[in-house]
């Protein structure tokens, strides 16, 4: 099929998406109010944006930012800090803060995110394994649901101290977990072991729904500030939110035992963290609308997408399955070309550290590697899946998807002519 008028075709796809769009607008309005209420309750003022230096004692900017996250995510306490390098660092702090030698960790969503491999099982690098923490994983079933019988069995047999749940799909061909599904799993797990600590890798999930996992029983949630909750403005950092006692233990790991969150300064000031958090519900909505639109727009070329068109997204990632390496690389090329930064460079597959296959990436972002900004990446191997995410403005998503449709449209024409 050849699309004559791509612009009107995109308008048509937007019409098809009206039901999801309406729901996303409703969620964003709800979350914007949640965020705004927290700003007002905590009496945020210009003084909170000021830089601090040295030890950072009595840093009201740092303290209030933590309180805001705790209120918004409904945890008892939170750590929000530019001293956390990224999501992997935040998750590492969480695991090392909570677990002790001899403890066990059980992942019930299969293999945790790739960058955690070495954190959990690495050799000669200070991993959890080296400190005597045992790890086990139970895969999700074929439908992306929990294997409750296996989980129950393992909890009874091994008595793990903590359960690990990854909300987002990561690099797996599955749908992200809804908060309702996470809540249901937590309830079932607590029937078996009441005091088990539930950790949720919340990356890519913040503000996608009205509730966060902390509101359905998770003890602690963890994420990156250059993804959803930074609103595209926070230049670095990570957060953890949840139970008081756990946050305290983790704060001792972030700085030093007994110092915790009493120290830690930010010489550049906190303005982008506050402003980013305020913008986050809207930026996440824009990215999600882009994701939904891409699903409808690419359907005509026969590419399978996850989540499927018509389904509500539970994270900001859209997985797209291509038939060839050329299509995958071409797709990333189009995203790069229509980026505000580095639009003139061509993404090529490369041997990325930590991966055993070539990876292609499009990231024309203001903040290096920020994936709430429109970006895409994929492993250059079968089944040639691209993971597209982000989009600070819906209009940027529309422009990008238009170019992508034009790219594949032209390809089809060429193949038909040959
Ligand atoms: C991004 C991400 C992480 C952490 O990755 P960083 O690149 O270190 O921020 C962890 N888990 C999931 C599911 C992620 O999407």
Tell me what you see in this structure.
By secondary structure, this protein is α/β, with parallel strands linked by helices. The protein has two domains: 6-29 and 278-417, Methioning gamme-lyase, C-terminal domain (Aspartate Aminotransferase, domain 1); 52-277, Type I PLP-dependent aspartate aminotransferase-like (Major domain) (Aspartate Aminotransferase, domain 2, 3-Layer(aba) Sandwich). Helix content is 40%, strand content 13%. It has eleven helices and twelve strands. The strands form two sheets. It has a seven-stranded mixed beta sheet, with helices on both faces. Strands 8-9-12-11-10 form a five-stranded antiparallel beta sheet, with helices on one face. A hairpin with a 5-residue loop joins strand 11 and strand 12 (385-389). Helix 2 (18-41) packs antiparallel against helix 9 (271-299), helix 6 crosses helix 7 (179-192) and helix 9 packs parallel to helix 11. The radius of gyration is 22 Å and the shape is globular. The mean pLDDT is 96. Pyridoxal-5'-phosphate (PLP) is lined by residues 86-88, 113, 115, 166, 168, 170, 201, 203-204, 224. Pyridoxal-5'-phosphate binds at residues 86-88, 113, 115, 166, 168, 170, 201, 203-204, 224.
Q: How many structural units, i.e. domains?
A: 2
What overall form do the CA principal axes indicate?
Answer: globular
pLDDT < 50 stretches: none
Oligomer status? single chain
The order of strands across the largest sheet is 1-7-6-5-4-2-3
Ends distance: 15 Å
| Count, helices | 11
């Amino acid at each position: 099929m050849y699309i004559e008028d791509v612009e009107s075709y995109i308008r048509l796809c937007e019409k098809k998406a009206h039901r999801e769009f309406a729901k996303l607008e409703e969620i964003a309005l709800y979350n914007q109010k949640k965020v705004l209420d927290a700003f007002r309750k905590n009496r945020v003022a210009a003084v909170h944006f000021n830089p601090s230096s040295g030890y950072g004692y009595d840093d009201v900017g740092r303290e209030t930012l933590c309180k805001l996250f705790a209120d918004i995510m409904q945890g008892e306490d939170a750590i929000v800090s530019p001293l956390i390098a990224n999501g992997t660092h935040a998750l590492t702090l969480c695991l090392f803060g909570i677990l002790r030698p001899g403890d066990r960790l059980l992942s019930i969503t299969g293999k945790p995110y790739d960058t955690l491999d070495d954190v959990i099982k690495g050799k000669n690098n200070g991993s959890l394994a080296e400190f005597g923490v045992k790890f086990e994983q139970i895969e999700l079933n074929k439908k992306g649901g929990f294997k409750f019988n296996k989980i129950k069995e393992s909890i009874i047999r091994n008595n793990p101290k903590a359960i690990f749940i990854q909300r987002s799909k990561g690099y797996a061909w599955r749908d992200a977990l809804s908060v309702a599904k996470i809540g249901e799993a937590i309830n079932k797990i607590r029937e078996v072991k009441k005091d088990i600590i539930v950790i949720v890798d919340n990356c890519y999930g913040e503000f996608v729904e009205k509730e966060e996992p902390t509101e359905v029983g998770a003890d602690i949630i963890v994420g990156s500030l250059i993804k959803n909750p930074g609103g595209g403005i926070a230049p670095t950092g990570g957060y953890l939110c949840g139970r008081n006692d756990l946050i305290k233990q983790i704060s001792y790991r972030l700085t030093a035992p007994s110092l915790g969150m009493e120290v830690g300064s930010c010489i550049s000031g906190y303005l982008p963290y506050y402003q980013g958090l305020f913008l986050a519900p809207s930026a996440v909505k824009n990215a999600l609308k882009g994701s939904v639109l891409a699903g409808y727009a690419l359907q005509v070329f026969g590419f399978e997408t996850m989540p499927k068109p018509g389904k509500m997204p539970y994270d900001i990632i859209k997985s797209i399955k291509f038939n060839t390496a050329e299509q995958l690389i071409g797709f990333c090329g189009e995203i790069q070309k229509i980026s505000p930064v580095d639009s003139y460079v061509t993404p090529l597959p490369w041997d990325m550290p930590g991966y055993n296959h070539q990876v292609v990436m499009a990231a024309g972002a203001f903040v290096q590697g920020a994936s709430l900004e429109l970006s895409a990446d994929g492993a250059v191997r079968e089944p040639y899946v691209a993971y597209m995410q982000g989009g600070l403005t819906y209009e940027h998503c529309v422009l990008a998807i238009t170019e992508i449709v034009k790219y594949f449209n032209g390809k089809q024409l060429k193949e038909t002519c040959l």
